[in-house]
């Protein structure tokens, strides 16, 4: 750990001294504004960008950003105008409202279920990442962003029943406009105007042109909304699969409505997200985001078993009932993508645990990091960035997504249901072997059979929990999360220095300290 002592006054710049952690709390002023010093722990792997030599104005700006963001982490009630949400506050304020215009249907019950999770306060991390990253990418000169034609402007409102444009081009088409004739999209009765397919957005002003200050393109804003729609659809499905009874501090969708309605609403959100995705008119982005949707399902299937020690995919368990699945007929030869290594019976315990870790990380990428990484890559593509920048954005999202989920798995062992807003301690109950118990297994081979049977015996859960505590599995999991956090910061710092990049660095560091 590195000790960082921050001092500031109108005539004094921030200074760094000492080692370990801050151990004092005082009050000083910057331009007459009181700043309360707070205890903020900073890993030496997570260097803060505001300590780099920059201009005096930028120094104060970055310093304030660090202090205010740290304040918010320690004292969530403190309002901060420098936190990441404030930098894209206009877009974040209308996020749910804009999504509401995309998911309306002709059935009131479907409307109610589809909008249910958007009503509760969520973390909104995924759209926030897309918006902040888009803002940071805007600092790259447009002369260096020529991979595709940048589309900074909206087009005039379309006619409600227009035909397919004769001179169709990908650049210059609004993400709000349909590609097919609206009379076709409307279905049986072309006189019924369906809001998400025809009417302009409630906040179309945000989409008219690239904001000269924010630099966020209209299609990047829509990408953020699409990303949140896909994520919310996955939550509706996951809560059914995991038998969850709460989400975001209230009844989960499957409890509030029913399993059937929750699944159908999730499917509907994915359909609406696909419509909006097509209107971005970028085949590479469509490919990426569609793959992310498929990855969510693949990751869920990987979670049906914990390790590569369980080769029998010919049987499944549902609600405690084990049944065999039908054998393939061979009429539809499907290529199988192997997500694990073949393990002979003579393999060592250490190699077995390592293979299980690789399986766990691959599953974690598919279930969580894929959507973050592919939406980050898509934001860079829409900005016309070079291949190197696009790849760094992808790796940033990948590393941050892995860090985020690993911390989530750790919180399942360390926090309460009230703090999480969803059931705590559920992973072992569901039979899931996440990083903390895999670290414990490395030291206690006797956990292997329990992991293999998904902790199904009455005493398995408590034995595993005690083993995690004895082996310091939570602490080792935190170290793993810190590694991915550091890698994500390294990817970020290839972008030009900016307030948006600083905010992303703060957001990345805050993942390690979150409690829900």
From TrEMBL:
One of its GO terms (biological process) is ubiquinone biosynthetic process. Its cofactor is Mg(2+). Gene3D superfamilies: Farnesyl Diphosphate Synthase. One of its GO terms (cellular component) is transferase complex. Pfam families: polyprenyl_synt (PF00348). It comes from the Eukaryota. Keywords: Isoprene biosynthesis, Magnesium, Metal-binding, Transferase. One of its GO terms (molecular function) is prenyltransferase activity. Residues 1-20 are annotated as: Disordered. SUPFAM superfamilies: Terpenoid synthases (SSF48576). Belongs to the FPP/GGPP synthase family. This is Hexaprenyl pyrophosphate synthase, mitochondrial. It comes from Ogataea haglerorum.
């Amino acid at each position: 750990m590195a000790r960082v002592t921050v001092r500031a006054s109108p005539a004094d710049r921030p200074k760094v001294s000492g080692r370990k952690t801050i151990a004092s709390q005082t009050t000083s002023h910057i331009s007459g504004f009181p700043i309360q010093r707070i205890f903020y722990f900073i890993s030496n792997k997570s260097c803060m960008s505001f300590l780099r030599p920059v201009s005096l104005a930028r120094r104060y700006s970055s310093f304030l950003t660090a202090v205010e963001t740290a304040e918010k982490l320690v004292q969530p009630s403190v309002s901060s105008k420098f936190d990441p949400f404030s930098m894209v506050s206009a877009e974040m304020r209308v996020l749910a409202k804009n999504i509401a215009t995309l998911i309306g249907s002709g059935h009131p019950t479907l409307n109610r279920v589809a909008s249910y999770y958007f009503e509760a306060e969520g973390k909104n991390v995924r759209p926030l990442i897309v918006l902040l990253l888009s803002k940071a990418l805007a600092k790259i000169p447009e002369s260096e962003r020529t991979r595709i034609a940048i589309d900074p402007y909206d087009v005039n409102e379309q006619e409600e029943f227009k035909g397919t444009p004769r001179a169709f081009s990908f650049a210059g088409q609004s993400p709000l406009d349909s590609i097919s004739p609206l009379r076709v999209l409307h279905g049986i009765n072309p006189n019924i105007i369906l809001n998400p397919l025809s009417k302009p957005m409630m906040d179309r002003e945000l989409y008219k042109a690239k904001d000269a200050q924010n630099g966020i393109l209209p299609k990047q804003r829509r990408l953020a909304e699409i990303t949140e729609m896909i994520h919310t659809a996955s939550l509706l499905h996951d809560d059914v699969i995991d038998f969850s009874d709460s989400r975001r501090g209230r009844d989960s969708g499957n409890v509030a409505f029913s399993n059937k309605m929750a699944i159908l609403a999730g499917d509907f959100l994915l359909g609406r997200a696909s419509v909006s995705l097509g209107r971005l008119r970028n085949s590479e982005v469509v490919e990426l985001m569609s793959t992310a949707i498929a990855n969510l399902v693949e990751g869920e299937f990987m979670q049906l078993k914990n390790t590569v020690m369980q080769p029998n995919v010919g049987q499944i368990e549902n609600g405690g009932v084990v049944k065999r699945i039908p054998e393939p007929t061979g009429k539809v030869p499907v290529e199988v993508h192997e997500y694990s290594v073949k393990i002979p019976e003579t393999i060592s315990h250490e190699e077995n645990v390592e293979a299980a870790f690789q399986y766990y990380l691959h599953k974690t990428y598919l279930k969580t990091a894929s959507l973050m990484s592919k939406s980050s890559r898509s934001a860079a593509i829409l900005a016309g960035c070079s291949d190197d920048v696009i790849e760094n954005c992808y790796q940033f999202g990948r590393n941050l997504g892995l860090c985020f989920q690993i911390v989530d798995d750790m919180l399942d062992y360390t926090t309460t249901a009230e703090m999480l807003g969803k059931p705590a301690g559920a992973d072992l109950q569901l039979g899931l072997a996440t990083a903390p118990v895999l670290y414990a297994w490395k030291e206690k081979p006797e956990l292997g059979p329990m992991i293999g049977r998904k902790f199904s015996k009455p005493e398995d859960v408590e034995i595993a929990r005690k083993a995690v505590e004895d082996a310091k599995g939570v602490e080792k999991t935190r170290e793993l999360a810190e590694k991915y956090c550091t890698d994500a910061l390294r990817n970020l710092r290839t972008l030009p220095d900016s307030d948006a990049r600083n905010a992303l660095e703060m957001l990345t560091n805050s993942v390690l300290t979150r409690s829900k």
